[in-house]
Amino acid sequence: MSEDGTCPKCGMQLEAPQSGALSSSRVAESSDEKAPWHFKLMVASVAIYLGWRVIQLFA
């Protein structure tokens, strides 16, 4: 899609054109989102499991 929101092949308007300020605020919005608690729990569990496997490897 082009910068002005049109299709590059047919020229049909697909979405409203976005200004630079609006798109930068959308980036700031998406970076404020936090990971869900269950994803953090899964990452911590995997780290503990792999740490234990490394300990078993050298023991």
Record the SSE blueprint.
Elements lengths: L19 H12 L5 H22 L1
Structure report:
The protein is mostly helical and 59 residues long. The protein has 2 helices and no strands. The protein starts with 19 loop residues before the first helix and ends with a helix. The relative contact order is 0.08. The model has no long low-confidence stretch (mean pLDDT 81). Residues 1-27 are annotated as: Disordered.
Query: What gap, in angstroms, lies between the N and C termini?
Result: 56 Å
Inertia-based shape:
elongated
Strand content: under 5%
Determine the structural class based on helices, strands and strand pairing: mainly alpha
Helical residues, percent: 55-70%
- In terms of quaternary structure, the protein is single chain
H/E element order: HH
